[in-house]
Amino acid sequence: MAELLAVEGLAAGYGDARVLSDIGFTLEDGRSLALLGRNGTGKTTLIDTLVGLTTRHAGTVRLGDADVTRLGPEARVAAGVGWVPQERNIFKSLTVEENMTAVARPGPWTVPRIYEMFPRLRERRSNLGNQLSGGEQQMLAVGRALVLNPRLLLLDEPTEGLAPIIVDELLAALRRLAREEGLSMIVVEQKAQKILGFTDDAIILDRGTIVHRAPSAALLADRAALEMHLGASGKGA
Amino acid sequence: MTAPASAPLSARSALSRGAVPPLLEWAAWAAAVACVFVLPSKLLLLNEIAILALFALSLDLILGYAGIVSLGHGAFFGVGAYAAGLLAKHGFGDPVTGLFAAAGAAALVGFVTSFLVLRGSDLTKLMVTLGVAMMLFEAANRLDWITGGADGLQGVVMKPVLGLWDFDLFGRTAYLYSLGTLFILFMLARRIVHSPFGLSLRAVKGNALRAGALGIVPGRRLVAIYTLSAAYAGVAGGLTAQTTQFVSLDVLDFTRSADVLLVLVIGGAGNLYGGLVGAGIFRLMQTWLSGITPQYWQFWIGLLLVVIVLVGHERLTRGLPRLAAAALRRLRGKADAPGSTRP
What we know:
The complex is a heterodimer of chains A (237) and B (343).
Chain A: E1 3-14, E2 17-28, E3 32-37, H1 43-51, E4 55-63, E5 66-67, H2 73-79, E6 81-84, H3 96-101, H4 111-117, H5 119-123, H6 134-146, E7 152-156, H7 164-179, E8 184-188, H8 193-196, E9 201-206, E10 209-215, H9 216-221, H10 223-229
Chain B: H1 7-19, H2 23-38, H3 43-66, H4 74-89, H5 95-117, H6 122-142, H7 144-147, H8 172-193, H9 196-206, H10 208-213, H11 218-244, H12 254-267, H13 273-292, H14 297-311, H15 313-336
Helix pairs in contact in B: 2-8, 3-8, 3-11, 3-12, 3-13, 4-5, 4-6, 4-11, 5-11, 8-11, 9-11, 12-13, 13-14
């Protein structure tokens, strides 16, 4: 399979402050990666850096054949990066449908297809962003990223703060995207067991560097590694 | 992943939802046309309101939908006025051609200055727009061999609208011409703000950097809407020049920029109707108050502005109907009370 994302020697942070150092990993087209770690280890900073929202101090980021290291967020989106931010960032003055229509790009992922994936959004299509529950906002954030028709989907703690039933629905959708649709994705999650079941590979961050990497299935079975890096067998940080 | 691309389909559905005017709006347009017969002595005033409404609509496109603050929007109004006026003065008096020229000249200035205006904070934008307007004012003053300077542009002669209707002293043709232009540009603005482009502007208004990371390119969109807004303001200026057949330095004056901002605050920004409603209220208040207190009418406009800003536009618009209903109930209660003389 062709290499979709290649990160090499990446150091980044906010202004002069370095949060990440010497980050290097690759992701092949059609594969998914779990990005794990305790609270405050740099997971969100790494996602933000891949989106182009932080200050890069060193290293390179390649997406397919293109070097996107020096590109801003808009250009990275145009190159094929879709982002589901931790805070969701729903456009509150727009309806559910308008949130997606405003950003939609031509491709297989369309607004009707998002409604098929999340029927709840179809019911709420005319509601404003600020009238949605947390779970609906998260579904909309995923749908909005998908209608960009990205080559790589970045999801930052998509299940945070959601009711268990919504978490199950959302994880089922992500599993379908990874397994059936073959969409390349990086998923950040503190609770490892939620996502190790459907991602291909996993890396664990600690203090801004990668401290462990393994196939997801192997890590899921490696209780010692989970205990050492994440605590409580990866059930929570 | 076999579904056909239907992003355009979604766009169409968004368009159709927002682009169809409600019945009440059609009634308002019909009433505006009926004014020609109902208020034949007020057509000059109504023409001014229509032009001010278009000018406010142009500001609403950038302020209400894209969050671009401006204290110098009068610059585009003035450029449009001079473009249409100069064209007519030099023998090209066809009104519609003049409006296209006004729109084009203002759009050009808008496009060029957009790169200065669209960077920095709101304060920077306010200062840059103000500065651009001041520079254009002084340039027009200095270039008196073209603009007529402080004496104004004389000799503007207009041909009949569409070769059929001459401008008359009572303002009948002028009003219908301005109203027709306002109607067309309002409908176009409605299509634009409900298109994916318009929706993305509202997203950018919230947080441009985040919107960029979420798939919207703010820069080009803001330049586009700023240029379009300038063209709209230019048309408003062109209408003023054509219907009054005179252009003075006032068209570039700061008070014009301040007035249109006031109109939008009164009417409410970000819904397209605000400019129209605000223009009516502002001009009628101005006319009425200046009749009562010729020297101090601005006091009351200022008071209204303070009340709107402090109380909040939404609360006012929600509260007024409630107050009216309560007053009506009270009146009815008094009328029904024992001893009432009501039959």
